[in-house]
Amino acid sequence: REEIDEVRVAMTAERKARKIIAVGSGKGGVGKSTLTANLAIALARKGRKVGLVDADIYGPSQPVIFGNQGQKPVAHDEKLVPVASRFGVPMLSMGQLVEPGRAIAWRGPMAAGALTQLLDAHWGDAEILMVDLPPGTGDVQLTMLQKFKPAGAVIVSTPQDLALIDAARAGQLFDQAGVPVIGLVENMAGYACPHCGEVSDPFGKGGVETTAARLELPFLGRIPLDLAIRQGSDRGEPPAATDGPIAEPFLAIADKLDA
Ligand code: ADP
User: Based on CB atoms within 10 Å of each CB, which residue in 6, 11, 26, 45 is the most buried?
Assistant: First the structure.
């Protein structure tokens, strides 16, 4: 009995010591999953023990980004064991709980239950859990905020006006729940033409920094729109794991998260 109590205390302490960083966005397709994966890898490169939870029920894309589709987590003592990845970041994804390619149309309680399974898994000595939230402000986000109290949240947006309005709304959700917004990241700004090198801004530029200033939140950095990011993500070779210049913006943002 005493032993059981001791284990319980130890487990609670472990969960408290672990820092959860949630990555959210106002809408889908702005690069939230890409950013979450690459920040986790960048933190691991800096020597931190990091795990990743893919809680995006609508489009769990982390198994593709990590190149470990088909690998299913096993359970031990009724808890999931995270799947290892080539980048030193153990991970669990909603996509590993269902058949690949099947749209997940879970109602609130089921989605919340699945999220709990992913977060209450055997995370061992992980110091930081990066959580890829679904876009917007639904049930999974609420469970995340109320039950697991992240240490902070990162919000990613493209510089487009509509994405920015939604991003501000996502920021409000964290704010109301008492979860500090660590800062905003601008993704897909500045596209260098592979033929002539001219830089254009398909989704505009600077909008996220302006919005961060307006909301009095830190601006964490800018990730360019780069074909190599899309290709690497589809191939299971995330840019942050490479030695190329494309890893740099991710490493720089990871520095700020770790500060
Ligand atoms: P979300 O998680 O917000 O839905 P994803 O991270 O899945 O968005 O990104 C959507 C698509 O855009 C993916 O194909 C991804 O590889 C691509 N992508 C994301 N960020 C960039 C970028 N900076 N440059 C090029 N492609 C990107």
Answer: 26
The fourth-level CATH superfamily of domain 19-258 is P-loop containing nucleotide triphosphate hydrolases (3.40.50.300)
Query: According to the annotation, is 31 in a ligand binding site?
Result: yes
ipTM of the complex: 0.99
Tokens of 71: 């690998």
| Residue of the CA atom closest to atom 24 of ligand 1 | 225
158 lines ligand 1 (CB under 6 A): no
Alpha-carbon span 40 to 70, nearest angstrom: 21
| For the CA of 27, the nearest atom of ligand 1 | 3
> Is the separation of the CB atoms in 39 and 254 below 8 Å?
yes
pLDDT tens per residue, range 12-57: 666 667 999 999 998 899 999 999 999 999 999 999 999 999 999 8
Q: Which residue CA neighbors atom 19 of ligand 1 most closely?
A: 31
Confidence of residue 9 (pLDDT cuts 50, 70, 90): low
